[in-house]
Amino acid sequence: MTKVTMTVNGKAVSGEVEGRTLLSQFLRDGLGLTGTHVGCDTSQCGACVVHVNGQDVKSCTTLALECEGAEVRTIEGMANPDGSLSVIQQAFQDHHGLQCGFCTPGMVMTASALLAQNPTPSEAEIRHYLEGNICRCTGYHNIVKAIMAASGQDVSHLGSDAIAAE
């Protein structure tokens, strides 16, 4: 066992981990932060996306020890300081960018990383950036709409909030 120390959602944390312990396991089992979902264990679905030092990473294929000294942000750390939803979280709610909710934490984290890099992405840029995230419920239309709305763009041209087939 090796001690790992990092800052998670603004709080210094540490724990004993095996060398093979994944960041997703450390967050969920070690810290009780179960908002980070694990859907595939192969880095395909994106449900496990968190931010490490400001970069979006798939925590199901990142070793906890790789994050020694890192700043980690999970979905639990996305809300505003007063506990209200962040702009991107509110946009997902307002534009029905979720259904079952399983992929939502990873989608929100990925969308947040995209908007940090590109504050006003086009629809095509959003769809390209989301290629590493799988949603089996929404058809992505409302997820794209939510991200565009969170960026302050007019989304009226994207049609109704009804689920669109891809």
From TrEMBL:
Coiled coil: none annotated. InterPro entries: 2Fe-2S-bd, 2Fe-2S-bd_dom_sf, 2Fe-2S_ferredoxin-like_sf, 2Fe-2S_ferredoxin-type, Beta-grasp_dom_sf, Diverse_Oxidoreductases. Keywords: 2Fe-2S, Iron, Iron-sulfur, Metal-binding, Oxidoreductase. Gene3D superfamilies: 3.10.20.30, [2Fe-2S]-binding domain. Residues 2-78 form the 2Fe-2S ferredoxin-type domain. It comes from the Bacteria. PANTHER family: OXIDOREDUCTASE WITH IRON-SULFUR SUBUNIT. This is Carbon-monoxide dehydrogenase small subunit. It comes from Rhodovulum euryhalinum.
